[in-house]
Amino acid sequence: MKFCFLFLTLVMAFATHAEDINFSEFDTPRKELDVESLRWKIEIQGNLLVFNKTGTRLLFKADEERKWRFGNDKPITSYWNVATKGLPTTALYHEWQFNAQGELQVKFRQYDSMAKNRDGSVKTGKLLQEKDYTVENMAGPSIVLYQDDTRRIVAQFHIQVWTDDNTVDIGKLGINSNRMTIFDNKGNVWASRLDNSTGNNVYYGVTTHQGSVYMSYLPFEGAKKIGVAEKNRIRIDQGPLRILIESSDALLPRGIQANVYGIVDLNKRTERLNQVRSNGSDKESNFLEAIKQK
């Protein structure tokens, strides 16, 4: 197998032009992704951009940026209502879903207004436009929400695809955050607002009403590779069950994808809904003792 080390290079034009020449070669076999794997790897980011009237010059980016991910087999649905001083209010409903052939499809519905009802549902006003797309080349679509004689407002979407191809062992680094949420691809929320920011949690475990997860960037006794960490997320594959851990803080530096080792025990649970027990340590022996406790 040939190994290719990838470096992030910033090319700046100090003179007349900048030129980047990059040759890469890989011989690792690739397998086609099934629909479930695609759903697990996709992240959609939305921005509001303001252009001149022809859309050829960006004037500024609105103070709004959101991200959406598939949590289970249901579609991503979002009522996106943004009120920005000096700009017309945007009220956009969008829905994303993979069809049986693995094609990503999106529906846009723009309204003149949106409002929350007391029961948490959303009341929409007059329908202004509707568009349906089948995404090609994983290129995110955009939709013009407003146009006048001086400017154009566009909702622009980017589709990020996670990759597991360049994961590395990063050694003795703590898994620390002051707010973590754990959920799975069946729509279950395991825990929310977990605080494990104190100490150096090289080994970290949590037991919830859905099961227990014990993990580290280091292999430890009884552990195997269970997932991948990147940015502020850890993805754990447990057969048909897939668990996502999201942190309000970055877990790793940008551009690093790390192997996560651990143990998933779906039979070891807390007695009550929303009851959570967690433990962390920088010593493997102490962590293994905590795992043995009921």
Detail the topology: elements first, then pairings.
Elements: H1 35-41, E1 42-52, E2 58-69, E3 76-82, E4 90-98, E5 104-111, E6 114-116, E7 122-124, E8 127-134, E9 142-147, E10 151-161, E11 180-184, E12 189-194, E13 203-208, E14 211-216, E15 224-230, E16 233-238, E17 241-247, E18 257-265, E19 277-281, H2 284-292
Structure description:
It is built from 2 helices and 19 strands. The chain is mainly β and 294 residues long. It has 2 domains: 35-161, no CATH class; 180-292, no CATH class. The chain has a 9-stranded antiparallel sheet with strand order 12-11-17-16-15-18-14-13-19, covered by helices on one side. A hairpin with a 5-residue loop joins strand 4 and strand 5. The longest helix is centred in the C-terminal third of the chain and has 9 residues, at 284-292. The protein starts with 34 loop residues before the first helix and ends with a helix.
Short description:
The protein is mostly beta strands and 294 residues long. The protein has two helices and 19 strands. It has two domains: 35-161, no CATH class; 180-292, no CATH class.
Could you give the order of the helices and strands?
A: HEEEEEEEEEEEEEEEEEEEH
Helix content: under 10%
Question: How many domain units?
Answer: 2
- Most strands sheet: 9 strands, antiparallel
Number of strands: 19
Question: Would you tell me the overall average pLDDT?
Answer: 87
Q: Rounded to an integer, what's the Rg over CA atoms? A: 22 Å
Name the overall outline: globular
Total number of helices: 2
Beta-strand content estimate: over 45%
First-to-last CA distance: 44 Å
- List low-confidence stretches: 1-15
Structural class: mainly beta
Which strand order spans the largest sheet, edge to edge or round the barrel? 12-11-17-16-15-18-14-13-19
